[in-house]
Write a structure and sequence with these properties.
The chain has 5 helices and 9 strands. It is an alpha+beta fold and 248 residues long.
Length: 248
């Protein structure tokens, strides 16, 4: 009987030790995960702070200059700023849509990646439908603030932005907020969106919110679309579609 009690005590001790070790490992992993997550966001913020110092001046005589940004990376094609948000980033374009998904403007590996133009779009944003991507990140990093447009009041009150390219400046007017699947070719196959009426019809049929300034069928419109991940359903994407109006 005493031998049985001894065995039970030993088993209990081993079990207790195992539980303690598991808790220690779990705590260590959790602490590492928090530290790693902080490093990711810190890296993204540091790059953004550096980029802000090189942001072209939209009011500069002769137009905004991208000389310093192009010296860092010739893949820089423009700069997007959305009023009422912290979206204020250079836009890059790679050979494929994976080039800058985890690469920053300096060409370094970065989980936050960069804001980038679809590789099938013309680099000068001359297409009827231009699509840019950015990771959805907390603390308003990258395209995290696209979530703000899901609020009806915010959508109604924050309708403007600016797109600067290497040879032009465009006012951006927010037209619609959509939630779509990542497999929705009407949004993500830019080769299907060459005619304004195709995009307008899609917006009218699928948008969560539509601006009062929505163009009518037959109107000449050039679109600039922002896309990021969303959590409403599997492979959900938040889409904000704007109209581009070139400064004269």
């Amino acid at each position: 009987m005493s031998f049985s009690r001894t065995c039970v005590r030993m088993v209990n001790s081993f079990v207790s030790l195992a539980v303690i070790l598991v808790l220690i490992l779990f705590g260590t992993y959790s602490a590492y995960a928090l530290w790693d997550n902080k490093q990711i966001y810190s890296a993204a913020q540091n790059v953004m702070i550096q980029m802000q110092e090189l942001k072209p001046d939209v009011e500069a005589e002769g137009g905004p200059s991208f000389e310093e940004l192009l010296a860092i990376n010739p893949d820089v094609k423009g700069w997007v700023s959305m009023d009422g948000t912290k979206i204020d980033y250079p836009i890059l374009q790679g050979e494929t849509n994976l080039t800058y998904i985890n690469t920053d403007v300096y060409g370094h590996f970065a989980l936050a990646g960069s804001i980038f133009l679809d590789c099938r779009n013309n680099e000068d944003f001359s297409d009827c439908y231009n699509l840019v991507y950015g990771h959805h990140m907390a603390n308003s990093n990258m395209f995290g603030d696209l979530d703000l447009y899901k609020d009806a009041k915010f959508f109604q009150e924050n309708t403007t932005g600016i797109l600067m390219t290497t040879d032009a400046v465009y006012d951006l007017n927010v037209l619609a907020l959509l939630l779509v699947s990542a497999s929705d070719d009407s949004i993500f196959d830019v080769t299907q969106n060459r005619e304004p009426d195709v995009v307008i019809r899609y917006i009218l049929e699928n948008a969560v919110y539509i601006s009062e300034d929505m163009p009518e069928l037959g109107d000449p419109v050039q679109f600039f679309t922002l896309s990021t991940c969303s959590s409403e359903f599997t492979d959900a994407r938040t889409i904000v579609i704007t109209a581009m109006n070139r400064h004269t």
